[in-house]
Design brief:
Blueprint lengths: L1 H22 L6 H4 L1 H4 L2 H6 L3 H14 L2 H6 L1 H11 L14 H17 L2 H7 L1 H30 L15 H21 L2 H5 L2 H10 L5 E4 L9 H4 L6 E2 L4 E2 L9 H5 L5 E4 L5 H4 L14 H21 L33 H7 L5 H5 L5 E3 L9 E3 L12 H5 L10 H4 L2 E8 L5 H4 L6 H5 L5 E5 L9 E5 L9 H5 L8 E11 L1
Length: about 500
């Protein structure tokens, strides 16, 4: 059946590409695939991307909730999980769980308005998939890369290079694992249960899907009440007894049309004559032939999806980064968390960030990680035990689809102060070990640190760092290269609101 083939093909391609976008640790794929994150519904809303929002609304009004079965990676993941259950005719019609479905949407809207990011990130489907891909799949991808790097090294090849594999946040890793298990159980037992009872994006689109032009429609003259459509509807939205479809829950997967042996169902915009104009096509018992109208509608569907993607696509910047590995450190207890340059302030990040983890997965210097703070859980924060925020790197601002990290170039980034360095006298090796150092001053890209006499009245006294807070941009180079262990003798304290210097 043509509709189902086109739908599954598009879904497979988009799902594979967006998964690769999260798995990629080199930054090379974002220039080609970055638009996939920008056509997701909630990030587009948070970024006030009017073009994408309008395109998705139009797409839904014409075709129904194909967003959920073609574009949304979490929706496609549920389909893959449901397919693992080999039992045939495994579904049945059930009424919508309105008492849970609509309150979840209200909770999401209130959380967005109030700025409770943790609730938004737990409910957002794109963010849920981002957590799964970044926290669970990317480490496996990187381990596979390291195996290939070992093999290539023995063959004197530089086709692959080894990368560090580490847990960015144990709480978020646990949340991602629990999310995956819950989704698997729901998909295994009921197909699209999560989409139609929990997901606020699906509920929001359901209001529009009721008025879509193209719908799955019954031809009552051909229907034999065999129930095969209901038994194959993963959204549990087809009542074969009354010949009705709950369009608010239908994701236009095409399974019902494919399973009908009598041509009684069709995807059409003409009520009352689905047998003639629907995608099940010809009259007769087979019901599997495609009509010219069906081919045109399927082509229109593919064209609409391609157009939505094209409108969201932008040319992205690339940069290569990475630092040599040094001994691990313990993160300092910062009074104010560090947020990425371009986020403007902790408040702006909290209001706009959907916690999709794309910036975390793309950070080449291992600076970004999910926050473990309950009020800002899963939103990106910065720490410098494994690297520092290189002034020329703008990858996090390039990839953010929600507008939580504004796009900026390397020149602008070098003038943004996200925090300032603080020297801790009792930790400095110059005083504790009686050695010369100066690492922090030598590696400061802003020239904000100079070495001065520890005793101004003694020219022979050891040289210790002095920080010019007005020049410091908070990049963390000083904290990263400081040889003091386990705590650095100099660390960066964050600013609630970023400043231009």
């Amino acid at each position: 059946m043509l509709l189902r083939k086109i739908r599954t093909t598009l879904a497979a391609v988009l799902f594979t590409l967006i998964t690769l976008l999260f798995l990629d640790f080199t930054g090379t794929l974002h220039a080609w695939l970055g638009w996939l994150s920008k056509i997701q519904f909630l990030p587009a809303v948070m970024a006030l991307n009017v073009v994408v929002i309008a395109a998705l609304v139009a797409l839904t009004l014409v075709f129904g909730r194909i967003y959920c079965s073609v574009i949304c990676p979490l929706g496609i993941l549920q389909d893959l999980m449901a397919r693992l259950r080999r039992k045939k005719n495994k579904y049945s019609y059930s009424k919508e769980v309105a008492w849970l479905r609509y309150p979840m949407l209200v909770v999401m809207v209130v959380a967005i308005v109030v700025g409770v990011g943790t609730v938004v990130q737990l409910l957002a489907p794109y963010s849920a998939y981002g957590r799964i891909a970044t926290m669970l799949l990317q480490p496996l991808w990187m381990l596979g890369n390291n195996v290939l790097a070992t093999v290539a090294e023995r063959s004197d090849s530089y086709a692959f290079y080894s990368v560090d594999v580490w847990v960015r946040s144990m709480p978020v890793l646990i949340i991602a694992a629990v999310t995956l298990v819950v989704l698997f159980v729901l998909a295994w037992r009921g197909g699209r249960t999560y989409c139609n009872t929990v997901c606020p994006v699906g509920t929001m689109l359901s209001f529009l899907a009721r008025f879509s032009w193209l719908k799955i429609r019954f031809n009552t003259e051909k229907c034999k009440n065999c129930s095969m459509c209901s038994k194959n509807c993963k959204a549990a939205c087809i009542d074969y007894k009354t010949h009705t479809v709950d369009y608010s829950r239908c994701v236009v997967c095409g399974n019902c049309i494919d399973s009908c042996k009598f041509g009684a169902l069709a995807y059409t915009g003409k009520p009352g004559t689905p047998g003639k104009s629907g995608i099940s096509g010809e009259s007769g018992e087979s019901g599997h032939s495609s009509s010219p109208d069906a081919s045109r509608r399927s082509f229109l569907l593919a064209t609409a999806l391609a157009s939505t993607a094209a409108m969201a696509q932008k040319k992205e910047k690339l940069m290569d980064g990475g630092l040599a590995e040094i001994e691990a450190k313990v993160a300092p207890a910062r009074q104010t968390p560090l947020t990425p340059p371009g986020s403007l302030s902790a408040s702006n990040l909290a209001k706009r960030c959907t916690g999709c983890q794309l910036c975390v997965s793309e950070c080449p210097n291992h600076v970004l990680r999910p926050s473990t703070d309950l009020m800002h859980l899963m939103q990106p924060v910065m720490s410098y035990e494994r690297g520092y925020c290189r002034p020329e790197c703008t990858r996090c601002s390039d990839v953010c689809p929600a507008g939580a990290i504004k796009p900026l170039d390397d020149v602008e980034k070098s003038s943004i102060q996200i925090g300032h360095a603080v020297w801790i006298k009792k930790n400095c090796v110059v005083l504790t070990d009686d050695v010369e150092c100066g690492n922090c001053a030598r590696h400061c890209p802003a020239g904000a640190i100079e070495m001065v006499q520890s005793d101004p009245n003694d020219e022979e006294s050891p040289l210790v760092p002095a920080v010019n807070e007005n020049a410091c941009i908070g990049c963390g180079a000083c904290e990263y290269v400081c040889p003091a262990r386990p705590f650095s003798a100099i660390y960066v304290e964050g600013h609630e609101v970023h400043r231009h210097i």
